[in-house]
Amino acid sequence: MVRVIGIALLIFCCCAQSRAEPKEELIEVKGKDEVEATSELAPLDAVSRMVEAKGKVRCPSVGASKYKGTAVGYSKTVTVNPYFKARLKKFEEIVARVGREIYGRAPSKIVHLGSYNCRRIRGWPNYISEHGLANALDVSGFTFPKATRSQRKSIPKHLRGRIKVDMLKHWSANGKRHRVHSVFLQRVAHETMEAKIFRTVLGPSYPGHKNHLHLDLSPWTTYDVFGESPPKLK
Predict the structure, then answer these.
(1) What angle separates helix 179-194 from helix 82-103, to the nearest 10 degrees?
(2) CB of 73 within 8 A of CB of 99?
């Protein structure tokens, strides 16, 4: 019963654009600047998500810092805790690899709607959102640079210029020119879940997530991106 309630609470967590830096209040969670992305337990698992239902929400300090990306950059600098940062690096590696396989090059930016945002979970006022722990990111798309001369040889003409891939516009896109974007998005989502980089991955099949992938490292596991239908990757 406790696990069911936990999962229900987590999947209500959706995106909101980051506007402020974390403040050192309530709890200070100390750790290394970088944490291996393979550990079964995350440093924030023991941090309580419960808060007063009314009044100004106060979020714990989790050692969050600004991060611009490693394998692939972000459209705006994200503010994340060290452990989540290590997971994002793994995610970037998948994005870069799938991009090279489909477009002949990696994307230049991961477009997002927000990372840190100190707030409650909508509909559950007694709980802090994972965004309030700098423990989540909402990805809405990707941008690709213009292909270089050497890259053009193996890329169809209509994919050689700058490309913007958008979750809302291209997730279910069909047709010769746009189907490739749908394949890219679905492969990124599918391979991210297969790699178990994040504990929660929400996407188009979950209400309110048609325009983004919600990624977080909550203490519970919830995957809802494709619904009951398996991805069509060809």
Answers:
(1) 140
(2) no
Please state, in angstroms and as integers, the Cα–Cα distance from residue 135 to each residue in 46, 55, 162, 168, 187, following that order.
14, 22, 31, 23, 23
Tokens at residue 192, please?
A: 């991210």
H or E stretch at 130 = none
Whole-model pTM: value is 0.81
Q: Read off the amino acid at residue 87.
A: R
pLDDT(13) > 70 = no
Entry field: residues in the chain: 234
Over the stretch 72-126, which tens digit does the pLDDT of each residue have? 999 999 999 999 999 999 999 999 999 999 999 999 999 999 999 999 887 788 8
Enumerate the domain spans of the chain.
Answer: 2-224
Which has the closest alpha carbon to 203: 219, 217, 186, 180? 186
Q: Are 58 and 49 in contact (CB under 8 A)?
A: no
Amino acid 109 reads K
Q: Which residues pair with 109 in a beta bridge?
A: 73, 143
- Structure tokens belonging to residue 9: 């609470």
Q: Which helix (H) or strand (E) holds 61?
A: strand 60-61
Tens of pLDDT, residue by residue over 208-233, are: 999 999 999 999 899 999 986 544 44
Instruction: Give the closest residue to 215 by CA, choosing from 1, 29, 15.
Output: 15
**8 Å CB contact between 200 and 219:** no
| Three-state SS at 229 | coil
Q: Give the C-alpha separation, 150 to 171, whole Å.
A: 29
CB hemisphere CA count around 181 (13 angstroms): 22
